[in-house]
Amino acid sequence: MATFKKTAKKASKKSAPRSRPAKGDTTGGEALSKSISESAQQIWLAGVGAFGRAQAEGTRLFDGLMKEGAGLEKTARAYANTRAGTVRDAVETGVGQTRDRAADTWDRLEKVFEDRVQRALVKLGVPGRDDVQSLSKRVDALTAALQAKKSAPARKAAKTPAKKATAKKAAPRKAAAKTAKTPAKRAAKKAANAG
């Protein structure tokens, strides 16, 4: 390019002082024409060389940019995954804490409700669980005692069946005697109570 400037300056110096070309200047015009042709040729060759270099380096540049972009994408994904993991952990921690607080609150509410219901039942005189359990134990003990008494006479009755038959015959007589004695006893009690 430097060559073009020098040639152009020479051509302008030669042509500037002259206002009209002289007859002997036909060789000067040819030189100028030749100089312009050479300059155009040099410009053309520079352009072709730049295109070739751009094409060769462009492919390398493009490949380099692709590699750099892939590296940046990988870094960005790793960062995003790290941030997503951090955010996920933070959210899970927050949810866990909220769940624990809700469970604690629910337990306290349940306890308050149970206490109030228990106080209301006590005021109404409704027996509690402990009272029902102690009564149940007492009923079980009484049932066991009653069954023990029932099983003891049955054993004796099995040993003496003949006495039972005679006792049945004597029973109606005893009942008649009791009914006869009963009105007399009643009259004696009335007299004692009246006096």
Report on the architecture of this protein.
Helices cover 91% and strands 0% of the residues. It is built from 4 helices and no strands. Helix 1 crosses helix 2. The mean pLDDT is 76. Pfam families: Phasin. It comes from Luteimonas terrae.
Secondary-structure blueprint of this entry?
Layout: H1 2-15, H2 26-124, H3 129-159, H4 161-194
Q: Indicate the proportion of strand residues.
A: under 5%
- Overall outline: rod-shaped
Mean pLDDT: 76
Q: What share of the residues lie within helices?
A: over 70%
- The total strand number stands at 0
Structural class: mainly alpha
> Mind summarizing the main beta sheet?
none
Biased composition (Basic residues): 1-21, 152-176
InterPro entries: PhaF_PhaI (IPR008769)
Organism: Luteimonas terrae
Protein name: Poly(Hydroxyalkanoate) granule-associated protein
Give me some keywords for this one.
4 helices, single chain, 91% helix, mainly alpha, 195 residues
Short description:
This protein is an all-alpha fold and 195 residues long. The chain has 4 helices and no strands. The chain is rod-shaped and about 185 Å long.
